[in-house]
Amino acid sequence: MSVAFRRESDEEHLEPVFELPIPPGPNLVTGRGLALIAAKVDALEAQVAAAADAEAAKPLRRELRYWHTRRATAIETAPRGDGVVGFGSRVTLVLAGKERTVTLVGDDEAEPAAGLLAFSAPLARAMMGAEAGETLPFNGREDAIEIVAVG
């Protein structure tokens, strides 16, 4: 019989399941971010304990490993507070003619629609070290970002 018609098991044809990717660089978090990580770990541990069987718990355990790693590597960092854009800063800026306010937070805490921007995001990296009144290059334009206020 041809090898094409032989089927040993369904398991050998499944795609491998890799660990969830950890963002590169330091795991800076705000106090709020650290609390969110702890809450996520607690919720996932409860879901794993309540899982019906080992197969149902597999994806939960995978996600739990990610959050355990993020909690273990978290570096709680306070905002600078000196008027210079840095981690934890609340920045009011004008970009593409629109004024908006963002707070620079950790990767896992980021929620751009709510004004929480990851410190590793391109826009955040472009603003790092700037002060109110400065105009900064971004996306190929020399005066794309105007920093209005830093808190």
From TrEMBL:
It comes from the Bacteria. Keywords: Kinase, Transferase. GO terms for molecular function: kinase activity. Gene3D superfamilies: Transcription elongation factor, GreA/GreB, C-terminal domain. Residues 82-148 form the Transcription elongation factor GreA/GreB C-terminal domain. SUPFAM superfamilies: FKBP-like (SSF54534). This is Nucleoside-diphosphate kinase. InterPro entries: GreA/GreB_C_sf, Tscrpt_elong_fac_GreA/B_C, Tscrpt_elong_fac_GreA/B_fam. The lineage of its organism: Bacteria, Pseudomonadati, Pseudomonadota, Alphaproteobacteria, Sphingomonadales.
